[in-house]
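Example record

The entry below shows one chain as it appears in the dataset: sequence first, then structure tokens.
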Amino acid sequence: KSSQKSSQKILECIESNPNITIKEMASTLNLSDRSIKNHLTNLRNQGIIKRIGPDKGGYWESTS
């Protein structure tokens, strides 16, 4: 499934740069902001990642 590939790429972005923004991920992966947000929501709901701190100044943490 292509959405799993996208989610995997998002995880790789987060692992290489926990402070990455949705906009940066969108441009890096050639996806829309909305698509990135949907993937992030799914990853959070599955307990794979979590957001530490506020949207501005916070960072992503992979729980796997």
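Notes for this example: The longest strand covers residues 49-52. The helical segments are 2-16, 22-29, 33-45.
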